[in-house]
Specification:
Radius of gyration: 18 Å
Order of helices and strands: HHHHEEHHHHHHH
Number of helices: 11
Strand order of the largest sheet: 1-2
Largest sheet: 2 strands, antiparallel
Distance between the termini: 33 Å
Number of strands: 2
Helix content: over 70%
Strand content: under 5%
Structural class: mainly alpha
């Protein structure tokens, strides 16, 4: 039981980092960003390049990678998405194209082989008779700290207030002089940076290969549907539910059945409560 509690918490933490960024950009800019998983993959590969090839310590490489992916996300929003934002279908197609381009670029540069991302912590800890890799526990701590810092930033800073205003009423916010385009770029950078951080932290114990962007986007989409589109609290609750549900299925049935959980949860929620648990506009 303790094993399920610990590993379920770690899985939920990774999903929460992915889903919070995904729902943040939707809640503010009304963008379903299908390239979100690519930011996760770029985070893992960026850590691999700077540590294994450039020889930098992981502690130094991590902020550089997160900043680089955040700037890349901001550039994608500014150059590709912003001119087409009025058309949801166009935005979906553009973000999907970005995801495919990133995947193919990773294939061409690194090949299809699995890559090893170094761990911050190599030791194992024994908690109540359960051996847990220190990297997994650190991932849990970092996820809680990152999401807590994001919530504090949104609630306590001037820029956070502007993000809240745009998410609640874009037209009124523009009349008040809030530069919506600049806010959209900042939010995309935050979203991409969170996904990159998730990739760096999870990379040492998950598969790092070019198509690794597919699973995160499926998980993030399932979580925001269950929690409620645009709701950060809903995303966190849904991430916990999905993470523990998958862990229970893995221990009770088989790990090969875990991928069905997110798909089944999405279908059930769309049929029974399309608005998600947190309903309408519970954003932030």
């Amino acid at each position: 039981m303790l094993e399920i509690v610990i590993f379920g918490a770690v899985t939920s933490a990774i999903y929460a980092m992915l889903a919070v960024g995904f729902t943040l950009i939707f809640g503010v800019a009304r963008i379903l960003n299908l390239a979100h998983g690519s930011f996760y993959a770029l985070g893992a590969y960026g850590a691999y390049v700077l540590t294994s090839i450039a020889g930098l310590p992981l502690v130094v490489a991590t902020p550089l990678v997160v900043l680089g992916v955040a700037l890349f996300g901001m550039g994608v929003e500014r150059v590709l998405i912003r001119p087409m934002r009025k058309s949801q279908l166009a935005v979906l197609m553009i973000s999907l194209a970005v995801a495919l381009v990133v995947e193919q670029a990773l294939f061409l540069i690194f090949g299809s082989e699995y890559r090893n991302v170094p761990s911050f912590v190599d030791t194992k800890l024994n908690i109540g008779g359960v051996d847990v890799a220190g990297q997994r526990l650190l991932t849990l701590v970092v996820a809680v700290a990152a999401i807590g810092a994001l919530y504090t930033f949104i609630q306590r800073t001037r820029l956070g207030s502007a993000i809240l205003a745009i998410s609640q009423d874009p037209e009124a916010a523009q009349y008040m002089g809030i530069p919506s385009d600049r806010i959209f770029g900042v939010v995309m950078a935050i979203s991409a940076g969170l996904a990159a951080l998730a990739g760096i932290m999870a990379g040492p114990f998950l598969s790092v290969q070019p198509s690794m962007h597919l699973l995160p986007i499926v998980k993030a989409f399932a979580i925001v549907v269950v929690g409620g589109l645009g709701s950060i609290p809903g995303s966190i609750v849904a991430a916990l539910m999905l993470g523990y549900a998958e862990t229970l299925v893995a221990y009770g049935i088989s790990t090969s059945w875990t991928e069905i959980v997110s798909v089944a949860a999405t279908l059930l929620m769309l049929v029974l409560r399309p608005a998600g648990f947190f309903g309408k506009r519970a954003a932030f």
